[in-house]
Design goal:
By secondary structure, the protein is of the alpha+beta class. The protein has one domain. The chain has one helix spanning about 60-75; strands at about 20-25, 45-50, 55-60.
Length: about 80
C-alpha cells in the first residue's frame, strides 16, 4: 500500500503497490582489482534493502536494530 502520511490510518482495503527486496552480499563479490573475499565463504556483513527501486546497504548493527523492532511489532500485533 502506498504510504499516505502518518495522519492516515492504513486499511486492508487500500491497494497494494511497490516492491520490497532483501539481498545478502556473498563473499565472492569483491572490489575491482582486489582479492579480499573472506576465507570462510560467509556473506559480507552488509544487507542490501530495496523499496520501490530505492536501495540502501545496511550494516549488521542496523539489521539487528530492525530485527528487534520487528520482533516487538510482531509481539504487539499478534493474535
Amino acid at each position: 500500500m502506498e504510504y499516505q502520511g502518518s495522519h492516515v490510518l492504513p486499511s486492508n482495503k487500500n491497494a497494494r503497490d511497490g516492491t520490497f527486496d532483501l539481498g545478502a552480499i556473498p563473499s565472492y563479490i569483491t572490489r575491482n582489482g582486489r582479492d579480499d573475499a573472506p576465507d570462510d565463504g560467509n556473506w559480507w556483513p552488509w544487507l542490501r534493502v530495496s523499496v520501490n527501486n530505492e536501495t540502501v546497504v545496511l550494516t549488521r548493527k542496523q539489521v539487528e536494530r530492525i530485527r528487534l523492532a520487528l520482533i516487538d511489532w510482531l509481539a504487539r500485533t499478534g493474535e
